[in-house]
Amino acid sequence: MLKKKHLFLTVSMVALAGGASQAIAGGFALREQSAYYQGTSFAGNAVGGDSISSMFWNPATLTNTIGMISESHHTLIVPNSEITPDSSVATAAFGPSGDLANDAWIPSSYTGYQIDENWYLGLSINTPFGLSTKSGPNWSGQVYARTSEVFSVNVTPTIAYKFNDMISVGLGMQFQYFDVRLTSATNALPGAPTAGLTGDDIGYGFTAGITLTPMKGTEIGLGYRSAVFHDLDGNFSTPVAIGALPAGTYDISAKMATPDMVTLSAKQRITDSFRVMGTIEWTNWSRLKEPAVLLDSGTQLRTLPFNYDDSWFFSVGGEYDWNDKLTLRAGVAYELSPIDENIRSLRLPDSDRVWLSTGLSYKPMENLSLDLGYTYIFSAEDARVNIGPSHQDYAGLTYTGDVDASVNIVSAAVRYTW
C-alpha cells in the first residue's frame, strides 16, 4: 500500500510547491515585494506613498510617479522550520527533519514614467511564489517529502490614468514563469532512493486597481491581482518500480493556477509628520481544489487534493517623519493560513502567523532614497501535523508531530528619481 500510494505523493508535489514558505506567507506565496512596506508589515501597501512598489498590489498607485522613478528592492529571508515526530511514529528513530527551510534572496524592481499630468506607464519584475525546503538524506517523514524547489518570475507592464487629485485607476498585464523541481524517498527505509518531478510553464493574468482621496489627508486604495493559469509540462522519474509503474522517466502534465488576490488599504494623516495606515488582504486559495496530473498518454494518475481555505491578512502600521531626510515606520500583522490541521502536511506545515516589523527611509540626496525593513514572524498557534488514514496525504505511514517555525526578514531598497 505504501509503494502504491507514494506515486501519488511524489506527483502531488507539484501542488505543494511552496514548502519553504510556511513561515513566510500563506500557502506558497511570497509577500516580500517591497522594503518600504516591509517596515509596516505591509500596512498601506495598496494606497501608495513615496515608493511605487505599491503597484505590485494596486497598479493605480503608479500615478504617484513624478517624472521617472526606478527602484530596486532586495529581501533576505532567513527561516527556521523543524518537524519533530511523536515517539509513536514508526520511523521516529530517524529523528526530526532538521531545519527544512533554506535561506532565500528575493529581488524585485519597479520603474514608473509620467507621460503627462494624466497618463503613466510602469513595469514591475517580481518573484511572487517560491522558496525551497531540503531535509537530510534520511528522516522520519522522507516518504512524504525530501526536497522542494520552486522558482517564479512575474513581469507586469502597467498603465495608469489620473482623473484628478481624487481618483486614479490602473491596469497591468502579468507574464509569469513558474518552475517546480521536487523529490521524495521511494520508501521509509534508510538509504531509500529518490524519485523526482519537474515541470514549468509561462502563464498570463492581469492586475487592476483604483485609488481614492475623498478628503485631504485620507487615502484609500483597492487592488486586484488575477489568478495566473499554468499548463505545467515536465517529467516524473523513479529509480524503482512503484506499484504497476516500472522504473523510468515519464512525461507528465498538470493544470494549476496561482491564486487571485484582493488588497484594500487606507492611510490617514494625523499630523504633518505622522500617518497611520492599515491593510486587509484576501487570497483565493480555494480555487486550487483538486487538479489532475496526467501522463503524456492522457491517462490520469491522480487528482491533487489541495482543498485549501481562502486566507486573510490584516495589518496596521504607522510612519513618522523625523526630519526632511529620515522617516521611521513600524507595523504588526496577523495572517490566517489557508491550511489547518485537517490537511496540514510535512511538505507544507502552514499555520497562522504574527508579523512584527520596523523600518526606515533615508534621503541622502534630493533624488535618491534608501529603504530598510525588518520583520520577525512566528506561529500564532502550536502547529501539529496529523497524517492518518483519514488525511488526504496518507500513504500507509501514520505521522504525527510538532512543527516549530519562525523567520527573520531583512529588506533593503534604492529609489532614484531621474
Automatic annotation (TrEMBL):
It comes from the Bacteria. It is found in: Cell outer membrane. Transmembrane segments: none annotated. PANTHER family: OUTER MEMBRANE PROTEIN NMB0088-RELATED. The keyword Transmembrane helix does not apply. Residues 1-25 form the signal peptide. Keywords: Cell outer membrane, Membrane, Signal, Transmembrane, Transmembrane beta strand. It comes from Breoghania corrubedonensis. This is Long-chain fatty acid transport protein. Belongs to the OmpP1/FadL family. One of its GO terms (molecular function) is long-chain fatty acid transporting porin activity. The keyword Signal applies. GO terms for cellular component: cell outer membrane. Pfam families: Toluene_X. It is a multi-pass membrane protein.
